Amino acid sequence: MTSSSAPGKIILFGEHAVVYGYPALAVPVTQVQVTATVSKNSRRGMIIEAPNINLTSELASLAPEHPLSVVVHGVYSALKVTHTPACTLYIQSTIPVASGLGSGAAVSVAVIRALSEFLGHPFTNEQVNKLAFEAEKIYHGTPSGIDNTVITFSRPVYFVKKKPIKTFHVGEPFTIMIASTGIPAPTKESVEAVRMLWQENKPHWEKVFTRVGEIVWNARQAIERGDIAELGRLMDANHALLQSMKVSSVELDHLVTAARTAGAQGAKLSGGGRGGNMIALVEKENASEIARALNKAGAKRTIVTEVT
Ligand code: PMV
What we know:
The chain has about 300 residues and is an alpha+beta fold. It has two domains: about 1-160, Ribosomal Protein S5, domain 2; about 175-305, GHMP kinase, C-terminal domain (Alpha-Beta Plaits), CATH 3.30.70.890. The protein is about 40% helix and about 25% strand. It contains nine helices and eleven strands. The protein has helices at about 65-80, 105-120, 125-140, 145-155, 185-200, 200-225, 230-245, 250-260, 285-295, and strands at about 1-15, 25-40, 45-50, 55-60, 85-95, 155-160, 165, 175-180, 265-270, 275-280, 300-305. The strands form two sheets. Strands 1, 2, 3, 4, 5, 6 and 7 form a seven-stranded mixed sheet that branches. Strands 9-10-8-11 form a four-stranded antiparallel sheet. The longest helix is centred in the C-terminal third of the chain and has 24 residues, at about 200-225. The protein is globular. The mean pLDDT is about 95. The protein binds (3R)-3-hydroxy-3-methyl-5-(phosphonooxy)pentanoic acid. (3R)-3-hydroxy-3-methyl-5-(phosphonooxy)pentanoic acid binds near residues 143, 144, 147, 187 and 272.
């Protein structure tokens, strides 16, 4: 039997613009995770059990474009496996689906690792990342690759599409509160909506994305020198630009305002938007007060994570 876990993730800065080649910052969230276990069974082929998404199926019965099918066949084809071994793939997750915490990428990463190890050839991070990206295309349409990268390497990343992974130094640990609107929002749709805006007026949106890129770069510098106050201001500025891309929502804006009013140093939506999560930069001492304010403002769940 082999088993592997992968964390969730949040995008701190730069979502959406990252799809167009601008940088973004993302960090792993280890408070939530996916665990994939592969064990031998006495039947034929692979059985997949994923209780969190109510799935019990033979691999052979899944549609070929199902992300799990893509991932498993990706591993088989990379290892030139011709006879599907008799095994059960069990997937357990504490990452809410379609909420900006990277559940799809975490499933892919955990499955690729557990399965390649089960087959006697554990993949390198680079191999895992490459295969997980293929499944991301199904979840996201035209993904930047940021989710699979930060989850595979499980480290803070300064990400630029199609460029080698760069991690960065955290000068002073800081605390992020993640609050969920409870509204599932498929990233694919918000990415497509931004693409339509961009196609209507490329010069304007390239300017907006350039501004996002500057924020990301400044945020990286602020994180490296431990300038938390500046980081908060930059989160606010990034949120305003995301609002202009029309990927925020009444609920997200409401939580962002509630967090700021309760004393957060900055707040913004995180990920695809239109639902999903917002994040707030908080001081540890007032984290519970801000969590209370967010719950009162309608948050369905809050998670506190330390970026170190
Ligand atoms: O919704 P999430 O957290 O998976 O984030 C997607 C981030 C986008 O920039 C909107 C899309 C992408 O592929 O980078």
